[in-house]
Amino acid sequence: EIACGARTRRIARSVKISYKDRIVVVGGDAPVVIQSMTNTDTADVIGTAIQIKDLARAGSELVRITVNNPEAAQAVPAIREQLDRMGIDVPLVGDFHYNGHTLLKDFPECAQALSKYRINPGNVGQGAKRDTQFAQMIEMACRYSKPVRIGVNWGSLDQNLLARIMDENSQRATPLSAQTVMYQALITSAIESAQRAEELGMPGDQIILSCKVSGVQDLIAVYREISQHCDYPLHLGLTEAGMGSKGIVASTAALSVLLQEGIGDTIRISLTPEPGGDRCKEVFVAQEILQTMGLRKFMPMVIACPGCGRTTSTVFQELADDIQSFLREQMPVWKEQYPGVEGMNVAVMGCIVNGPGESKHAHIGISLPGTGESPAAPVFIDGVKAMTLRGDNIAQDFQKIVLDYVQS
Ligand code: SF4
Question: Residue ranges of the IspG C-terminal domain (predicted)?
Answer without folding.
Answer: 302-402
